[in-house]
Structure formats: structure tokens, C-alpha cells
Design brief:
single chain, 18 helices
């Protein structure tokens, strides 16, 4: 067994025995899928809330507009007749949030209607209450009622109702449910790749700054092992933990999306297993980069706490592009595949939309992360050759 393999097995075994590392791994495997499930489930619940709940309105003076009452009932809105109330009473009633709105039809309605003057209908609502969808349905019925009256009057005077609509706008949405899903869900799913930098955080710090603090790094270097072999063993052990964590996290997220009723909000998740495996395979160099980056950064610290602080601040860097770029609403461009984490997120978006992704995008995504990983490993190996560094002089 080579010295490199011995170091690699030792670091992996130590990590598997460390409860803190395993808890962090489990936490990040499930925390992002749980947040995504909670967010989407809340959106689905709100969108179907109006269909599940009874839509009731209080109507004052409803006998003056029987056609309106009939149209409200035809739309599934329950009409509750009520005696006249003043403004404080209506406000107090709406604060109970049992009904979506109060419709008050003044006594002058019938006379104004017969005299062909604008007849007033008061619509009272509480905008602070979470009943917007119910209120929209009531407003639609009122608007439809007004239009039907206008059309009837025009017909009575021999005028076509079409004069009310000089322009007819027809809307066509060319987006598919897959493209909408890719934009929304893919952006949420893309944040999963940030967790890659947390899976091996403990291992990277403990095997560098931790060993330096415990003076065990000097003992290791006193053995017949080259600095590159030592760093490579630690690096690939951290990368293995990252790869396992990322694979589990993406699989759990994929299963969560497949099990949710996304069609309720006009979305879908059609990313197949082959595409998911391709994405995981392309993201493996990101695991190599995450492990190498944290090792190169942590080994410059003299204690575990110092390394923890330095790496924690540095881990804000991968978050910046995956948050800022989606906010700018940019179209996919080739330079995005050259930025780690953003590249994997962009690949996820394109695959989720069902778009054809060129091979160069996969090669750039994997190649840039691999190149950066090798640079970090080279730097760490070069640093380890210095006695001043090892002895902390």
C-alpha cells in the first residue's frame, strides 16, 4: 500500500469516526431540500387556498341588484345578507377576517340605475388580511356585472356591444412548464452546490490547522512521505466526503421535487435520472476544488479556531455569484460556466428547462474547477516544504 493511500484511508477513517463531521454532513444533506420543500409547499398551499376555502361576502341592500347576487352565487361566492352598517361596524366586521369583503349597495342605486346614471356599489375590504385571491374573484364578478349592464343598454339602443372593445388583446405565452420550472426551481436548486464547501469543512481544518496546533503535523513530516503525497491524501479524502454529500443532497432534492404536486402552480420537474447523474458527475471537480481551497486556506492558520474564522469568511465568496447573477436576470452566457458554483447552477437551470447544453459547457465547468483545485494543491504542497511554515516561525 502506497504512503498516499495510507494517508487517504487514515483521514477518511478519522472523519467517519468524528460525530461532528458526520452531523454537519447530514445537516447539509437535508437542510436545503427541507428549505426548498417548505418554500414550494407554502406557495402551493397559498395558490390552492381559495379553492379549498369558502368565499363569503356580506351584502347590504342586495335586493336592489338581484342579477348581481345571482352572478356572485354562480361563481361559488356565498352571499350573506346583512342590515345596513356604518363604517366602524364594517371595519370591525372585516377585522374578524371571516369574510373576504362587504358589498354595500346604497338606496340610491335603483334610481340611478333607472335614470342611466352611474350607480354606485361600495366594496369594502381589509388589504392587510390574506384574502387577496378571494377579493379578486369578487372584483371580477363586479366588473363583469358592470360590463353586462353596459352591453345590454347598447343593444337596447341598437348599438353593437363591440364598440366597448375597440382593441382586443390576445395573449400567448410561449413558455412551457419546464422552462418556467427551470427558471424558478433551478434557481432554488442551484444553491445546493454552495453546500459542497461545507461538507469537508471540518476535515480540511482539522487535518491542517488542527494537526499543526496539536504538533502532529511535524511528526507526519518526519515520516518518509513527500509533502505532495501528504496534501494529496488529505485533499482526496475531503473531496470524497464532498462528493458523497453532494450526491446525497441532490438525490434528496430530486426526490422531494418529484413527490410534490408542482402542477398546482403550473410548474413541473422533468429532470431525468440520466441528466441528474450527468450533473453530479460534472460537479465532482467542484468537490476537488472545495477540498483543496479549504486545505490551502486553513493550513495558513496556527490554530483550529483561527482557521475556522478565516475559512468561514472565505465561504461567503461562492454565495455571491449564485445570489447576484439570478437577481440580475441575465440570459445564460458562456462566461458563467467559468465560475465555480455559478457554473453548476447554470447547468442545472439549462437542464431543468430541457435546453440542449453544449459539451463545451460541461468541459468548461469541470475543467475550471479542476484547474483551480490543482493550483490550490500545488500551493499547499509548496507551503508544506517550508520549515518556517511547519514550525510556525
Amino acid at each position: 500500500m502506497s504512503r498516499f493511500t495510507t494517508i487517504w484511508r487514515k483521514e477518511v477513517t478519522d472523519t467517519l469516526r468524528d460525530k461532528r463531521s458526520l452531523m454537519m454532513l447530514a445537516l447539509f444533506v437535508f437542510i436545503y431540500p427541507l428549505i426548498m420543500w417548505s418554500t414550494l409547499n407554502n406557495v402551493i398551499s397559498k395558490s390552492t387556498k381559495a379553492d379549498r376555502e369558502t368565499n363569503e361576502v356580506i351584502v347590504i341592500g342586495g335586493s336592489q341588484a338581484p342579477t348581481l347576487m345571482q352572478q356572485l352565487k354562480q361563481q361559488g361566492i356565498t352571499v350573506l345578507d346583512h342590515d345596513d352598517m356604518d363604517e366602524p361596524a364594517i371595519t370591525a366586521l372585516l377585522k374578524e377576517r371571516k369574510q373576504a369583503a362587504v358589498i354595500r349597495i346604497p338606496e340610491s342605486f335603483s334610481k340611478d340605475y333607472q335614470d342611466l346614471r352611474p350607480a354606485t356599489i361600495e366594496l369594502w375590504s381589509d388589504s392587510a388580511a390574506d384574502q387577496r385571491s378571494k377579493l379578486e374573484r369578487v372584483t371580477q364578478v363586479l366588473n363583469s356585472y358592470g360590463i353586462s349592464i353596459a352591453q345590454a343598454r347598447l343593444l337596447a339602443h341598437g348599438v353593437s356591444p363591440a364598440v366597448l372593445r375597440p382593441v382586443q388583446v390576445q395573449e400567448y405565452d410561449t413558455a412551457t412548464s419546464a422552462s418556467r420550472s427551470g427558471k424558478i426551481i433551478g434557481a432554488i436548486f442551484g444553491i445546493f452546490f454552495v453546500a459542497t464547501f461545507y461538507f469537508c469543512l471540518n476535515l480540511a481544518i482539522d487535518t491542517t490547522a488542527g494537526e499543526r496546533e496539536r504538533k502532529s503535523l511535524e511528526i507526519l513530516l518526519a515520516q518518509p512521505v513527500k509533502p505532495l503525497e501528504l496534501i494529496a491524501g488529505k485533499w482526496l479524502a475531503g473531496a470524497l466526503i464532498c462528493a458523497v454529500g453532494l450526491g446525497l443532497e441532490l438525490s434528496v432534492g430530486h426526490f422531494v421535487l418529484k413527490s410534490m404536486p408542482l402542477e398546482e402552480i403550473s410548474l413541473s420537474w422533468r429532470l431525468g435520472l440520466p441528466s441528474l447523474l450527468l450533473l453530479i458527475g460534472t460537479a465532482l471537480p467542484l468537490c476537488l476544488f472545495a477540498s483543496a481551497f479549504e486545505i490551502a486556506l486553513a493550513m495558513n492558520s496556527k490554530s483550529f479556531k483561527e482557521a475556522q474564522t478565516a475559512v468561514s469568511f472565505a465561504l461567503l465568496l461562492p454565495l455571491i455569484p449564485v445570489i447576484v447573477v439570478p437577481m440580475l436576470d441575465l440570459n445564460t452566457q458562456s462566461w458563467m460556466y467559468a465560475i465555480p458554483v455559478l457554473a453548476e447552477q447554470t447547468l442545472m437551470l439549462e437542464l431543468a428547462k430541457g435546453n440542449a447544453v453544449p459539451a463545451t459547457a460541461f468541459l468548461t465547468t469541470a475543467g475550471v474547477s479542476l484547474a483551480l483545485a490543482l493550483i490550490c494543491v500545488g500551493f499547499a504542497s509548496w507551503k508544506l516544504k517550508s520549515e518556517k511554515f511547519v514550525l510556525g516561525v
